[in-house]
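Budget justification aside, the reviewers requested a transparent look at the raw inputs and outputs of the sequence design task funded under Objective 1. We therefore reproduce one unedited record. The lines immediately below are the structure tokens for a 77-residue chain.
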């Protein structure tokens, strides 16, 4: 039953972030969406890539968010 309450905070599922380009950005809990995110240097919140993978493994998650493009990994040579 959905009573409209935000999901409870949970522990971050990974002791260390993977090698994604957002790993140095501050990690924050998003109580409205029930997932962890990273705040880019422009102050925009982006879903944490590791948390998205974890949530997909346990039943799905939406990665939709207001975006300034910082979460797109830079191309490598």
């Amino acid at each position: 039953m959905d009573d409209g309450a935000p999901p409870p905070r949970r522990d971050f599922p990974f002791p260390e972030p993977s090698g994604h380009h957002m790993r140095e950005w501050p990690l924050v809990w998003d109580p409205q969406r029930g997932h962890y995110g990273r705040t880019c240097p422009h102050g925009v919140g982006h879903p944490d890539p590791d948390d998205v993978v974890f949530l997909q493994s346990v039943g799905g998650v939406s990665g939709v968010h207001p975006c300034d493009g910082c979460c797109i990994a830079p191309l490598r040579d």
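The chain has a mean pLDDT of 81. DSSP finds one helix and three strands in the chain. Computational costs for records of this kind are itemized in the attached budget.
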